[in-house]
């Protein structure tokens, strides 16, 4: 079946808002989305979604609704036989977030002295470092890990494994990376090996916290969860029970407008708000459990 690209060009701020909106809408479908710069001087960007032709009509309506534009404003390109998941990611520039440098294999020559380089090539799992939520998480992870020096960590909803790999490179320690999608787990395993941190990071397929390996390793000094707001709210009671006294939780995948609801869910479980980072319309929240709180199981 032929693949097509639905796309729209817009000024930088509007394009970034459209990209954030459609990535959220199409995340569960697994449709690749991309944002690329067309004209640096004019600050003109193009936002695309890649799909099979059979999904064109439905996807056009959902894209237009999420982007708040008329369906007729979206342009269509019929694509040649290329792996467009890989192609769309290969066109992305490397990303710097704190000390971290997230890149594809084609950008290894851009690694600088002092970089904590994380190589993530095109795959079928969410989380390349280019999304505002992942970049925000990387910045927060650097702050928390460097200041708290945790002894063990959990990356819940690991996707490509980028956050778990970053933690291992910053501060080698036992890290469990989990995802509900077995394809994501396989991609994470490959990336863990590619980055040479398999000594520290193990990946498992698990729904929530229901996995034998999680039960063996808990409580965690640090839990990082870069998923979506609604699942984060639903997981609040269970997640609060997994973090050690004095430990930290880093939450992302949250729009600015969703910040207060997510935060309220975790405050209700006894966690204390430390800091919120705002990046490209998304937020990353850092919370802690009191050092003397032992009522976690």
From TrEMBL:
Q: Name one GO molecular function term.
A: protein-lysine N-methyltransferase activity
Name the EC number(s).
2.1.1.-
> At the top level of its lineage, which domain of life is listed?
Bacteria
Q: Which UniProt keywords apply?
A: Cytoplasm, Methyltransferase, Ribonucleoprotein, Ribosomal protein, S-adenosyl-L-methionine, Transferase
Gene Ontology terms describing biological process: methylation
HAMAP family attached to this UniProt entry: Methyltr_PrmA
What family name appears in the similarity comment? Belongs to the methyltransferase superfamily. PrmA family.
Q: What is the designated name of this protein?
A: Ribosomal protein L11 methyltransferase
Give the species.
Candidatus Tokpelaia hoelldobleri
């Amino acid at each position: 079946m032929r693949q097509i690209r639905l796309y729209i060009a817009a000024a930088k701020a509007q394009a970034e808002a459209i990209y954030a909106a459609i990535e959220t809408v199409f995340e569960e479908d697994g449709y690749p989305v991309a944002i690329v710069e067309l004209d640096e001087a004019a600050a003109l960007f193009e936002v695309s979604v890649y799909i099979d032709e059979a999904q064109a009509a439905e996807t056009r309506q959902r894209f237009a609704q999420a982007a708040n534009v008329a369906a007729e404003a979206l342009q269509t390109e019929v694509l040649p036989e290329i792996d467009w998941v890989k192609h769309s990611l290969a066109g992305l520039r490397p990303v710097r977030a704190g000390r971290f440098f997230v890149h594809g294999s084609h950008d290894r020559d851009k690694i600088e002295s002092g970089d904590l380089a994380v190589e993530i090539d095109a795959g079928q799992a969410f989380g390349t470092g280019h999304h505002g939520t992942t970049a925000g998480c990387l910045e927060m992870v650097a702050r928390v890990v460097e200041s708290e020096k945790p002894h063990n960590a959990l990356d819940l909803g690991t996707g490509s494994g980028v956050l778990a790999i970053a933690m291992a490179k910053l501060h080698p320690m036992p890290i469990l990376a989990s995802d509900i999608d077995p394809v994501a787990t396989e991609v994470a395993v490959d990336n863990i090996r590619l980055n040479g941190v398999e000594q520290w990071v193990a990946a498992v397929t698990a729904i929530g916290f229901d996995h034998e390996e999680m039960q063996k390793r808990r409580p965690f000094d640090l839990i990082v969860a870069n998923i979506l707001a609604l699942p984060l709210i639903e997981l609040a009671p269970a997640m609060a029970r997994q973090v050690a006294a004095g430990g930290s939780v880093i939450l992302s995948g949250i729009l600015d407008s969703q910040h207060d609801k997510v935060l309220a869910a975790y405050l209700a479980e006894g966690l204390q708000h430390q800091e919120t980072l705002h990046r490209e319309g998304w937020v990353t929240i850092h919370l802690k459990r009191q050092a003397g709180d032992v009522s976690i199981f």
